[in-house]
């Protein structure tokens, strides 16, 4: 009999601190500030000499419950919640980097993440080198004397390219650098990067953690030593997660594992079907044996995930035909929802990138990103056929 709770149990039972009311569901502390017992009590709280709550930009019980639960699922000592996934990435980069530092990053990234690394960091004197995510030698060659941080997504958005987390962690640590992994595509239900050697994990809670497209939210998970400066940065600059959004994300975590099991089963069925269509040039799904890194996916993920990238012959015209023809699947830039979504990355999520950057990342005009929801897979297939027939 195991004495350590399984992740499925932690997703429901961790982070629970009952009030005097003995509530069964976690309460929502919708307040901007908290009362103190005395002037000395206030002094100690604001000085950090005593535990407690003063102001919700600093800490909030509902937000803390979400942070504890996500940290437990990722296997981290501590979590810092943020207002969005991009706020989480921003906080990590501006906490752990300074002018004169150098970053090595995967060239296969979400559009806003790439833009932050390529255009925002250099304004503050931070250099960035982009490398092929699967080429371990490229990560090694890119290292300089001032390299302080490695950054990657795996699987990547939208191409589902994988990076060997354990191998890149070894390269980073040998150079004295931190490894930061964006775990949005998998969530802790499918992948735990800290266990594979990553130092920090970032999330957009908006995706699978919420799972229903209701709220924005983000998080950073890691050791107490690495999260403490992130907390101080977020506390000072203000991109904190609201109590209401944290409450929604907490409820999302409770169903995360059962949702991801269904997401993945349907995605595998649909990816297998898409691969057989003559008008589909290629399908990228980590759960398919045809994926270039299928064996890596089997080692570091519990399943293939719920996002399929597929490229059509006929370029933008063919891709837009499918996007315009669907009637059930949602046309939106978001993913990770119970409702299936279809996106044309080249003109939406990655549309602001230079054409040569998109080309290098394999984001062609014929590429579509399908986020498989919880509808019956036969109905998703039938809807796609409206534009593929």
From TrEMBL:
**Which co-factors does it depend on?**
pyridoxal 5'-phosphate
The reactions it catalyses are: O-succinyl-L-homoserine + hydrogen sulfide = L-homocysteine + succinate
Record's GO cellular component terms:
cytoplasm
Name the domain of life this protein comes from: Bacteria
Which UniProt key words apply to this protein? Amino-acid biosynthesis, Methionine biosynthesis, Pyridoxal phosphate, Transferase
- Complex and partners: Homotetramer.
Q: What is this protein called?
A: O-succinylhomoserine sulfhydrylase
As recorded in Swiss-Prot or TrEMBL, the protein's gene is named metZ
